[in-house]
């Protein structure tokens, strides 16, 4: 109570705890009234007991806890109201809506997020996930007339992956598959977002002209996380070797690349603070370029948080930065903490980089060019391993070695890829020459991933229960605590 830093930390934890409690327990819409009432009485208590430090502290803690509960409760749709789309779940209906996000293409079809505004002449609000065949293809901003049976997303019994909560992160509470579709018009949606997606399509086509497959898809994945066209066998090999993060927009990926670029800029003569601002600006531009997708924003926020923590340097402040980051992201999307595995993995990997990496690096006596990548890789693996074993039941035995063999070249491939595309837009034959040189680096990555991914010992199936996951993290926290305590002594 007498430390501003610890008080701030406590308030953030209380808000996060409230949001987590709301995520784990079903809160009826009627409860929102009582949450408002609680906020009123807590605010009144602050006025009455303002002069008492301890009372003021505990009231603020409860206030932030209730605020976290309220934040989650207000995101739940009122499915008993006919003006809400989920009211029609379980019924065959015809509705009109606009494709409101970038279509997600897979081998067996394309998924569209459609913002619905009309159901049988009734004005409604809500989003639906529509899965359709590969052809015809619809684009962002297309207005569609759709007839199908709306269904509430369901989670298979016994599954640790909650599909309904996964879609709820995007405000989607309804789904339908292979409906009758008819395009009404084009050009709807946000013009800026549409222009960004059009530029991404143009860029994808241009990448395909510069590199053959699968090198072209790998370059798209490295530059902006577009890996949908990677062959299925290669995607499996990336997963088995624990290297999927290099072709995904993740906080871990952005942080690793940012750290490498930070070192490069410092080597080129930039002051650390100036290099930090350059990297933050580049990260923001990257998020805009990817179309302001939720995963890109999440990754950028987490990456910038760790860079800020490294910039600050003091341990207690690092904790504040990370906790504040989680709290702010929970304000914008209260489903992240409990239901977004990608967010959890990104956060844990970054915590590993900040706290586990300094411990590991003390025990690795290797040249600096190998020592730092190995310590970062092992720290991320250790920090995410219990969650990976609980959620997916797999462990990559080859990940440490494969990451060492590949991570060092990733920033250079991204840099050379960006330069190649820029040069090719000015003078295409010269760009083809650059692409030919970059091709060897891309082939090297694919060769390493395929070599290790095809080995039977590359990964193992190990499923653990929830209690064991928490026990493993408890042991890890205890080890880090003892290390920090011994170090301070």
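^ Assign residues to that structure.
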């Amino acid at each position: 109570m007498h430390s501003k830093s610890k008080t701030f930390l406590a308030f953030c934890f209380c808000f996060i705890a409230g949001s987590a409690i709301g995520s784990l327990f079903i809160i009826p819409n009627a409860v929102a009234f009582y949450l408002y009432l609680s906020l009123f009485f807590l605010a009144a208590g602050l006025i009455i007991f303002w002069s008492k430090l301890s009372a003021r502290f505990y009231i603020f803690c409860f206030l932030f806890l209730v605020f976290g509960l309220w934040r989650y409760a207000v995101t739940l749709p009122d499915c008993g109201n006919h003006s809400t789309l989920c009211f029609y779940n379980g019924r065959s209906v015809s509705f009109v809506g606009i494709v409101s996000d970038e279509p997600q293409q897979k081998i067996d079809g394309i998924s569209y997020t459609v913002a619905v505004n009309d159901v049988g002449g009734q004005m409604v609000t809500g989003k639906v996930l529509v899965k359709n065949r590969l052809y015809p293809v619809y684009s962002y901003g297309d207005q569609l007339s759709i007839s199908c049976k709306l269904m509430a997303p369901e989670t298979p019994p016994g599954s640790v992956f909650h599909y309904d909560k996964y879609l709820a992160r995007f405000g989607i509470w309804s789904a339908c598959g292979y409906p009758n579709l008819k395009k009404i018009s084009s050009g709807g949606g946000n013009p800026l977002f549409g222009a960004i997606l059009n530029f991404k399509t143009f860029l994808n086509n241009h990448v395909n002209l510069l590199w053959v497959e699968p090198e072209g898809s790998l370059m798209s994945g490295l530059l902006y996380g577009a890996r949908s066209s990677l062959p299925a066998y290669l995607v499996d090999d990336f997963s088995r070797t624990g290297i999927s993060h290099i072709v995904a927009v993740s906080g871990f990926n952005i942080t690793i690349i940012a750290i490498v670029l930070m070192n490069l800029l410092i080597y080129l003569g930039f002051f650390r603070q100036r290099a930090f601002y350059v990297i933050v600006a580049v990260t923001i531009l990257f998020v805009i370029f990817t179309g302001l997708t939720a995963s890109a924003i999440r990754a950028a926020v987490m990456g910038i948080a760790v860079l800020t923590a490294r910039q600050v340097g003091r341990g207690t402040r690092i904790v504040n930065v990370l906790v504040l980051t989680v709290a702010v992201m929970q304000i914008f999307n209260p489903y992240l903490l409990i239901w977004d595995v990608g967010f959890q993995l990104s956060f844990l990997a970054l915590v590993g980089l900040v706290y586990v990496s300094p411990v590991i690096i003390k025990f690795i006596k290797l040249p600096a060019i190998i020592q730092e990548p190995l310590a970062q890789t092992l720290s991320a693996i250790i920090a995410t391993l219990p969650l990976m074993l609980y959620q997916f039941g797999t462990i990559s035995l080859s990940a440490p070695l494969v990451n060492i063999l590949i991570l060092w070249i990733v920033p250079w491939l991204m840099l050379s890829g960006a330069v190649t595309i820029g040069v090719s837009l000015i003078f295409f034959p010269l760009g083809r020459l650059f692409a030919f040189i970059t091709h060897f680096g891309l082939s090297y990555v694919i060769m390493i991933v395929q070599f290790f991914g095809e080995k039977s010992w590359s990964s193992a199936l190990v499923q653990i229960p929830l209690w064991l996951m928490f026990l493993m993290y408890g042991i890890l926290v205890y080890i880090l605590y003892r290390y920090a305590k011994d170090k301070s002594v």
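DSSP finds 18 helices and ten strands in the chain.
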